Amino acid sequence: MVKTKISLLLPLLFFTLVGTSHAGGIAIYWGQNGNEGTLSEACDTGRYTHVNIAFLNKFGNGQTPEMNLAGHCNPATNSCTKFSAQIKYCQSKNIKVLLSIGGGIGTYTLASVEDARNVSTFLWNTFLGGHSSTRPLGDAVLDGIDFDIEQGSTQNYDHLARFLKAYSKKGKKRVYLGAAPQCPIPDRFLGTALDTGLFDFVWVQFYNNPPCQYADGNVTNLLNSWKRWTSTVPAGKIFLGLPAAPAAAGSGFVPADVLTSKILPVIKKSRKYGGVMLWSRFFDVQNGYSASIIGSV
Ligand SMILES: *[C@@H]1O[C@H](CO)[C@@H](O)[C@H](O)[C@H]1NC(C)=O
Ligand SMILES: *[C@@H]1O[C@H](CO)[C@@H](O)[C@H](O)[C@H]1NC(C)=O
Predict the structure, then answer these.
(1) Which residues form the signal peptide (predicted)?
(2) Which helix (H) or strand (E) holds 41?
(3) Are the beta carbons of 86 and 38 closer than 8 angstroms?
């Protein structure tokens, strides 16, 4: 009896000491190229656990907010409501669908705490569990909001995060928060917001940032940065954000074999490992990146 117990316990002890490997998912940005296929097609691949619909790229400072989904549809003529059923379809497959606010091109800022409060009210009523006569994505209730803030004011995103998270208590459905900071710490736009500890998913952009990305066969800078993110930034899960193809970013593309052999085995030991984020669905379709890595994520 005693012998059997010890032989069962030893492997357990071994794994505790050496570090367990954690399973993760793939998050994808969808919405910025009309030739990337529909939302349902993305979800039908079975490879994504999170989809960020990109972007709501005009908000704040009293502006009337606007969404931009490139060639997919035109919010001004209400043709994006066709994605309502597709959002529900993705959610029925247990895929979390978030609205990403910000992006590289747009007009957005948060001018004050009051402005942040107003934007949070707008997001709740227009895309989450609230009600509005104008819902560009129809009556589908998104799982949360992703912050991809790259311009405008660096202020008040912590307040926006608090106001949005407060709706988690009011509605029946939890409001998830995602963020896509650049890898240098602290992120200029999102550092203060991340310090709130309210973000469930933080998909760090390990690209377009030479001090903390992969380059020429060398994984050192990326792995050092990953260690800093997972040990110093409070967050639910941290994802390794990567370009899905060389053309998807200025620099930082990681060949799939390097990712699966030299990076994933190391970062999967982190308790906070959530998986890999890819920019974007369009480039993933072109390059087949998620298909190459899914078995190792
Ligand atoms: C916030 O919303 C209120 C109510 O609609 C409005 O009176 C106020 O001007 C708004 N504040 C800002 C900063 O946009
Ligand atoms: C990889 O990069 C690190 C950090 O820049 C550097 O110290 C190291 O020498 C590089 N390793 C190789 C094999 O080039």
Answers:
(1) 1-23
(2) helix 39-44
(3) yes
Which of ligand 2's atoms lies nearest the C-alpha of 218?
A: 1
Pocket of ligand 2 (CB under 6 A): 218, 220-221
Q: Which ligand is nearest to the CA of 112?
A: 1
- Mean of all residue pLDDT scores within the chain: 94
Q: Domain holding 270: CATH number? A: 3.20.20.80
Inter-residue contact 157 to 147 (CB < 8 Å): yes
Tell me whether residue 36 is one of the annotated catalytic residues: no
Nearest by Cα to 149 from 60, 62, 235 = 60
| pLDDT single digits (tens) 194-232 | 999 999 999 999 999 999 999 999 999 999 999 999 999
Domain residues for 27?
Answer: 23-293
**122 alpha carbon – ligand 1 mean position (Å):** 11
